Amino acid sequence: MVTLAETLQSQAENVLMQNYGARNLALVRGQGAHVWDSEGRRYLDLLSGLGVNNLGHCHPKVVAAIQKQAQTLLHVSNLYLIEPQVQLAGLLVEHSPADRVFFCNSGTEAVEAAIKLARRYSYDHHGPGRHTIIALQNSFHGRTMGSLSATGQAKYQKGFEPMLERFVHVPINDLEALKAAVDETVCAVLLEPVQGEGGIHPCRPEYLRGVREVCDQHRLLLMFDEIQCGLGRSGHLFAADEFGVEPDVITLAKSLAGGVPIGAMLAKEEPAQSLVAGTHAATFGGNPLSCAAGVAAFQTIVDEKLPERSRALGGRFKERLLALQRKHEAIVEVRGLGLMLGVQLTFPAADALAFLRERGILAGTAGPEVLRFLPPLIVEEDELLASAEVLDEFLTTRR
Description:
2 domains, four-stranded mixed beta sheet
């Protein structure tokens, strides 16, 4: 008998672009930290839709907000005031160092907006000529041409050259290299406080404090890409809070609306003033549906103290993974913050993924040999620790 997954796989090969490679698992339902496939098998989701489902699947408050808004107003243009948009912006401003918010549809769009803001702000205050943005090697900022040019990984850029000009990449946590890259053409520094796609590499606190000082000295904008590490994932509402450093710009997306597509660029008042009428826009950005979901999701993260839960629970999970490192030579390093953890292996992480999946656990990778865990912030501790036991079993049998 042909399964639904097999039918979908066959159809997908004929009608979809093949940029995601082969897929043979059809997920049809989700609830909390679990998903079910087309054959009725349940999985513990420790990838959260690549960091989107911080509240798990079908959180009742997000579902209720979507249902109510869908029955009221789905879309109007940004020529008009949109109540949920203003409400969500107000929440973001209240809980962040930012003063103003621009909404778009995705993380890469949020980064594009930040790039434009940096260049326009510099033009307004310093005139032409300051347009270079310093980013980090091994970073990931998106796949549109601007954000791809800012990304510090050649494998994502191959075949799409030439990249946009005026992006310089320096090593993470190397303040002297960053200082050396600053010249009269630089307008901003863009970085992830915790590199996600690049292998789960946190910046050091003293490094980020030094970067802030360099930006202040040279009047550069400091821009944090918190698309994956923000909104409780790293153990704080904003990853910047972990390091005690205030950026001028923060980009968000992924989990901001509990699973509905949205992106946001937050900025302090002075740089925000450079986006005057006509300088930037997004047709669907800040639409009523995504913002209503965003209000519900953000308020739930704050009200239920999920960043604090992420920090505590992630710490215990990390300790268990560190114990596995002491036991198994195949684990090179365990790194990350909160519930954003990576396990560096001596072999392809895909081998571990396959074993975990057979045992009903979905995880991901962050590079060929890094096993990536991004569980929902509402996951239970015993489920996390049980997944570590499954990894222990795999590493034991693999010897």
